[in-house]
Amino acid sequence: MAPAGHPVRxxxxxxxxxxxxxxxxxxxxxxxGVQRPAVSHDSIQPVRLVDVDAGNRDAIVRLxxxxxxxxxxxxxxxxLEMASRYPDARALGVAVGDHIVGFAxxxxxxxxxxxxxxxxxxxxxxxxxxxxRRAMELLLERLRDRHGADHVLVAYQDHNEVARRLYASLxxxxxxxxxxxxxxxxxxxxxxxxxxx
Length: 197
Description:
Aminopeptidase; 8-stranded mixed beta sheet; alpha+beta; single chain; 5 helices
């Protein structure tokens, strides 16, 4: 298995010295025999969104989900292919420090015309650290600030309790249910109210 926390490549000034990739924070942890960056809740570097490009695409493709989460999301390579077919889709890496630790896909929902977060995932080795929540907050800020979104949609499987709790805590309310798929919406007004969960 490939390690998570792959370095984000940035353009460097011609005179800038190349330095070895840094580990996210402190020591290395182990997961399935592969060394992965260890991050503690109290020392995590800021989470940020980065555009997907040739320099970080491989790191995004190698992100892994827990076995129990694989039924909820397609692999990132399929998501990147989907993004390439839609002009309004934006594929983004989730980075902590210089390392890719997650992936997000946003775009316009064709049936409503609202912006939608089609995918949000954090590598299994980096979960339960608040990275997904912070990435979602950054996505919402981006959609409001750059695209003027006053409504944002998400969809999740009704038995995906982690997603349901996360989205509800951010102010999303259930809008529609088709089979086991739940669509939830966040309006600008709802985003300003304190969370009920």
